[in-house]
Each structure stands twice: as structure tokens, then as C-alpha cells.
């Protein structure tokens, strides 16, 4: 096909690609549900991907720090994952087998058990679930209810466990009589206004008193579910000491402890499983996302003594996805053999340090936190008064090993969350070829979940683009007297001429694994 140059310097080929891209987006918004999520903030049409990089139908490339909501431990289309999938396809093995035994599944279980925290590995059972994290959460609740004969579940403020009824009940936004809500410790917006070790201690005492007080209104529960680092809740790492207290409190009262490692697992936080930071062995672990090596897979693993439920107690048609198990085996083995958890810890600390420096520069960054390559930047109102009664920030207070606390807010109180500024930063990132996610109670936390295979060079490129985006939004905010008003050039969709700044076009290095 002859490629002609238009007056704007655009070739007929790229004009065609742009039209196809825009047509797909237009049809999506006309045909897909109002409940669609990521697609609203990220109007891109991925057609190719490798490692950290996604290429859109319009030819633009992006550094992907969303990673399928934390699913892609090895990034997109890692060679070991592709090879594992091809091997199954070429072998003629059945792709769909319900929960029957197969060599592929056998190998997956062997590798999974190999990675489990000591203390669980030797006495573990695994239940394959419908292939979503939320179904595994449901399975965990059923399991502990069957094992204890009790009904109630303890869960935490800010939690996210999924979208099916039971998982939703246990998530932060819900009200339900079967779930009792307890405070999750956090430094920046500590519910007790003190943060640090003291805040975590008070949170633990509250939990203890709820269980001790016969008139607390909370009957003896069937289990407690927690995320070792709250992801959707705003990237809030639980202090190791608090997690150990939760283990002690539940063990003393024969309450099974369920660790939801759907997002934190497979090296993400700098340990293979995030509970390992504290040395805690949960009774049940809920696993999904990265364990399927980018394909859908979800399981619970649990202490065999809990295995008291009936055959068929948790069924489901799609529990035998052979391709996902093969991709998952390859991913688990690669992360283990290449010490990618250690790499996540080391690179994550460096990225946090750079982001903390950025927080010193920009008043709209209230807090920087995370663990390993699960990183959050909380965006706040630059000019607002600090929240009365909130504790002054004290650098490093009670920061557990491997976890950083922002130093920039030392003498300030937390300011109100700024979801609009956070959304503006997300848009500006996208314009610069960087995909980030928003999370947190008020959707004001910019989240980075890069693949564990990200190189130093790529990590620098991510942080450069993010810094540039924060700078652009801060300038706009200042120029418009305290409100962010994107000028025409900031409207990403369909505005290709505006993208000739070159920042959105990734270099060849971006394709490196
Ligand atoms: N638990 C946690 C901690 C999660 O982060 C998520 C998804 N973000 C889920 C459960 C639910 O997983 P899924 O979306 O696969 O149902």
C-alpha cells in the first residue's frame, strides 16, 4: 500500500490506524456497559504487548504500570509463559477438564506448594475455584464456615476482596450483618490520629476488645480476612507487628486467619508471599492474578485440618484451565528461580526514594508508600488546610524493614484527598505514554504495579514520565488559581496532533523484557 504524507505530516497508514482506533473506542462506548471501568480512564486499544510495553491500534506505545491490575508478574507475553502455553497446545492435551487430574495440573500444584510459606506447605490442601479472585474469596468463607460451624467474618476498613456477594460484603464499601468491620492500621490517615506503632497498637487493641467483649455485638466469627498490603484501598502496607498480633489474636481464639494474597502474591511486595515479611503463617491463602501467568486462575490453599467441607461444596465449571496452569507454573518457577521477589524489594525501595524526593517538590503529593513493586502516591489538595486532629507526619516512624514512609510531610497533617488532581495526573501520564491506575478510598492514589521484570532503565523512564505529569498538573493548578483546567491539548482522545511532543513514543528499550 502506498503511504502518502498528509499536510499535518501524518501518513495515510497512520491516519488509517488512528481511524480504526477511534472507531473501536466509539463502538465500545456505544455498546459496552455503563459499569466499564479501566476503559473510561484509559482510552487505548492494545494490539500488541511485550514486557512492560503495550502498543495501541493507533501505533502509540505505552509503559504499562497497571499490568492487568497486578496480574502480569513477568509483564506481557514473557517467553517462558508463551513457551509453556505452546507446549500444552502442541501436546494435544485437553484444554478443559473440570477438576480432573492432569499432568499439567499436577506440575502446577507441585510448583505452587514449593513456594508456600513454611508451616503451610507441609500440611496444605488446594481447592481450584472459578477463575477469579472473588470466587476464591467465596470459597475461603465457605471453607471456614464449614470448618468452624460459625458464620461471621471479620474484615477491615478499606478492604477489597472482589465483586461477588460474599466478597463484596467483606470489602470496605459494604454493610452486612455477617461481617464485622475492624480498623486497618495506616500511617497517613490513621483512624486514631497517631499513626505509626501506636496507631497499629490501638487498631490491634480494638480488634482484641471486640472479640473479648461479650456485648460488642460481634459473635465469635468463622474467620478473619485481611490483605497484607491493601491494594485497591490505596496501597497500605500492614505493619509486620500488627500482622503478627492478628495471627496471635486469631490463633488464641481458634479463628482461622485468611490472607487475601490475590494482589500481593508471587513476589510483588518483595517476598514471594507478602505474609512472609512478618513470618505469619495464615490458615487459608486466597491466590489469583499472577498465579495464572496472565490467564485466569484462582485457588485457595489451606491447612488440611480445615478440609471439612462436603464434596461439591465449592464447584464451578471452569476450574481446569490447563493453559492457565501451565502459564502459572512457568511464572511461579521463573519468579522463584530468578529471585524476582528480592529484585522487587530492591528496585521498589529505590523507586520509593525517588518518589519521596518528588513529594518534597510538589505539594499535591501528600504521601508516598508501598512495598516492593506495589507503590502508591497519594494526591492531596495542595492549598487546603491539614485535617484537624490528624497526627503530624514523622519520618520513618514505625516503618517496617523494606517499607518506606514519606519524609516530605514531616511537620504537616494530611490534607484532603484530591481525586480530580489524581485523575488529571493519570491523564497526563497517558499523554506521556505511561499507564497508571488510581485507587484508594477516594480514588486519589496513583498506583504503580510494574512487572517484576522491569529494568532499571525502564523504571527511570516510568518515574520521569510520572514526574513530568505531576509537574504539568501542578503548573496548571497554579495557573488557574487552584483548579485544574485541562486546556484543549490535554484532551487525549482523538487529538493526535497534540501528541507530537514525542514523549508518548517509546524507544526500542521499552520493548526489552
Ligand atoms: N482480592 C484482592 C486483594 C484484589 O485486589 C482483587 C482484585 N483487585 C480481588 C480479591 C478480586 O479479584 P477478581 O477481580 O479476580 O475477582
From TrEMBL:
Its cofactor is pyridoxal 5'-phosphate. InterPro entries: Aminotrans_3, Aminotrans_3_PPA_site, Dat, PyrdxlP-dep_Trfase, PyrdxlP-dep_Trfase_major, PyrdxlP-dep_Trfase_small. Its EC number is 2.6.1.76. It comes from the Bacteria. Keywords: Aminotransferase, Pyridoxal phosphate, Transferase. Coiled coil: none annotated. Signal peptide: none annotated. Pathway: Amine and polyamine biosynthesis; ectoine biosynthesis; L-ectoine from L-aspartate 4-semialdehyde: step 1/3. Residues 492-502 have a biased composition (Basic and acidic residues). The keyword Ribosomal protein does not apply. Residues 1-24, 479-513 are annotated as: Disordered. Pfam families: Aminotran_3 (PF00202). One of its GO terms (molecular function) is diaminobutyrate-2-oxoglutarate transaminase activity. Gene3D superfamilies: Aspartate Aminotransferase, domain 1 (3.90.1150.10), Type I PLP-dependent aspartate aminotransferase-like (Major domain) (3.40.640.10). CDD domains: OAT_like. Belongs to the class-III pyridoxal-phosphate-dependent aminotransferase family. This is Diaminobutyrate--2-oxoglutarate transaminase.
Amino acid at each position: 500500500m502506498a503511504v502518502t504524507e498528509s499536510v499535518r505530516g501524518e501518513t495515510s497508514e497512520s491516519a488509517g490506524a488512528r481511524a480504526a482506533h477511534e472507531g473501536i473506542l466509539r463502538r465500545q462506548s456505544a455498546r459496552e456497559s455503563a459499569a466499564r471501568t479501566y476503559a473510561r480512564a484509559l482510552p487505548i486499544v492494545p494490539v500488541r504487548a511485550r514486557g512492560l510495553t503495550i502498543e495501541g491500534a493507533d501505533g502509540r506505545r505505552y509503559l504499562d504500570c497497571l499490568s492487568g491490575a497486578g496480574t502480569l508478574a513477568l509483564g506481557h507475553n514473557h517467553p517462558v509463559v508463551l513457551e509453556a502455553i505452546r507446549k500444552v497446545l502442541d501436546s494435544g492435551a485437553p484444554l478443559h477438564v473440570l477438576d480432573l487430574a492432569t499432568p499439567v495440573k499436577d506440575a502446577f500444584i507441585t510448583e505452587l506448594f514449593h513456594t508456600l510459606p513454611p508451616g503451610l506447605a507441609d500440611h496444605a490442601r488446594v481447592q481450584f475455584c472459578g477463575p477469579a479472585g472473588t470466587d476464591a474469596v467465596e470459597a475461603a468463607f465457605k471453607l471456614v464456615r464449614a470448618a468452624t460451624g460459625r458464620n461471621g467474618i471479620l474484615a477491615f476498613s478499606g478492604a477489597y476482596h472482589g465483586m461477588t456477594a460474599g466478597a463484596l460484603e467483606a470489602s470496605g464499601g459494604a454493610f452486612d450483618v455477617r461481617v464485622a468491620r475492624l480498623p486497618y492500621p495506616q500511617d497517613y490517615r490513621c483512624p486514631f490520629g497517631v499513626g505509626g506503632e501506636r496507631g497499629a497498637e490501638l487498631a490491634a487493641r480494638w480488634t482484641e476488645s471486640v472479640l473479648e467483649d461479650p456485648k460488642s455485638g460481634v459473635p465469635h466469627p468463622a474467620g478473619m480476612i485481611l490483605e497484607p498490603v491493601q491494594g485497591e484501598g490505596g496501597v497500605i502496607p500492614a505493619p509486620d507487628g500488627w500482622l503478627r498480633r492478628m495471627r496471635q489474636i486469631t490463633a488464641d481464639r481458634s479463628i482461622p486467619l485468611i490472607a487475601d494474597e490475590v494482589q500481593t502474591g508471587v513476589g510483588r511486595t518483595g517476598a514471594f508471599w507478602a505474609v512472609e515479611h512478618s513470618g505469619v503463617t495464615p490458615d487459608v491463602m486466597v491466590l489469583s492474578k499472577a498465579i495464572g501467568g496472565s490467564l485466569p486462575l484462582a485457588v485457595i490453599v489451606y491447612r488440611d485440618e480445615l478440609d471439612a467441607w462436603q464434596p461439591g461444596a465449592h464447584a464451578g465449571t471452569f476450574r481446569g484451565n490447563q493453559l492457565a496452569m501451565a502459564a502459572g507454573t512457568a511464572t511461579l518457577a521463573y519468579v522463584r528461580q530468578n529471585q524476582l521477589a528480592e529484585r522487587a524489594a530492591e528496585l521498589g525501595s529505590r523507586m520509593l526514594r525517588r518518589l519521596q524526593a518528588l513529594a518534597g517538590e510538589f505539594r499535591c503529593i501528600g504521601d508516598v508508600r508501598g512495598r516492593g513493586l506495589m507503590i502508591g502516591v497519594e494526591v492531596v489538595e495542595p492549598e487546603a488546610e491539614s485535617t484537624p486532629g490528624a497526627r503530624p507526619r514523622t519520618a520513618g516512624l514505625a516503618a517496617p524493614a523494606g517499607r518506606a514512609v514519606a519524609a516530605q510531610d514531616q511537620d504537616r497533617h494530611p490534607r484532603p484527598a484530591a481525586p480530580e488532581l489524581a485523575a488529571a495526573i493519570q491523564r497526563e501520564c497517558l499523554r506521556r505514554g505511561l499507564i497508571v491506575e488510581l485507587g484508594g478510598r477516594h480514588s486519589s492514589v496513583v498506583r504503580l504495579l510494574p512487572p517484576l521484570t522491569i529494568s532499571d532503565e525502564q523504571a527511570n523512564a516510568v518515574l520521569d514520565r510520572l514526574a513530568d505529569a505531576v509537574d504539568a498538573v501542578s503548573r496548571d493548578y497554579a495557573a488557574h488559581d487552584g483548579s485544574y483546567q485541562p486546556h484543549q491539548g490535554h484532551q487525549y482522545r482523538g487529538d493526535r496532533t497534540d501528541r507530537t511532543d514525542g514523549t508518548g513514543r517509546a524507544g526500542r528499550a521499552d520493548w526489552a523484557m
